[in-house]
Specification:
6-stranded mixed β-sheet, alpha/beta, about 25% helix
Length: about 180
């Protein structure tokens, strides 16, 4: 069974983080570590996270806000997984997300990462009905990446072995896109 690390950076996310955590804890695939990095939040994010007593959760505290790129790199360096799964603290994962994505990557060794469609939610976690469907074939994706970001950050699972050194670089608003291209 592969090891999976779910990384979740958060800054002042007390309003949404419980739903994000619950969506990971309720996955059909349950052999993972969930590493949450509290990036110097000034709200009650730490208090919300500390309510959870699940041994799969690890909380890292930044003493001050370092930003999303540095925080993600800290978590990746601290993770143990063969696979890195990304989820932002204001997003919700479908219950079968990890099962389906890990199964796909295990059966398709020539793929370095996988993403999925996204469904938008409102501030109450309810579907807005808006979907983004990614329908390109594997052969089309490299070409599409020349022109724009084809993956939604919070849907990605990637093979740790393929991460470049210093996975995320300081590129405001494009650090994920940069990483996908380099992978």
């Amino acid at each position: 069974m592969p090891k999976v690390s779910v990384i979740m950076p958060v800054y002042n996310g007390e309003r949404f983080i419980a739903r994000a955590i619950d969506s990971i804890l309720n996955q059909t695939f349950n052999d993972f570590e969930l590493i949450i990095i509290n990036d110097g939040s000034t709200d009650n994010t730490e208090k919300v996270v500390s309510i959870y007593q699940d041994t799969r959760i690890k909380l890292i505290q930044n003493q001050k806000n370092l930003g999303i790129v540095r925080s993600r790199n800290i978590v990746i360096a601290d993770s143990l997984g063969d696979y890195i799964s990304l989820l932002d603290a204001d997003d919700i994962a479908y219950p079968t997300r990890l099962t389906e994505q890990i199964d796909f990557l295990e059966k398709n060794k020539d793929f370095g990462m996988v993403g999925s469609w996204i469904e938008f939610i409102d501030n109450n976690g309810e579907s807005t009905g808006e979907l983004v469907r990614y329908t390109a074939t594997a052969d089309e994706i490299p070409v599409l990446l020349l022109f724009n970001n084809y993956f939604s950050q919070s849907t990605v699972v990637m093979r740790r072995a393929l991460l470049p050194v210093g996975p995320y670089r300081m590129m405001e608003f494009a650090e994920d896109y940069d990483l996908w291209i380099r992978m």
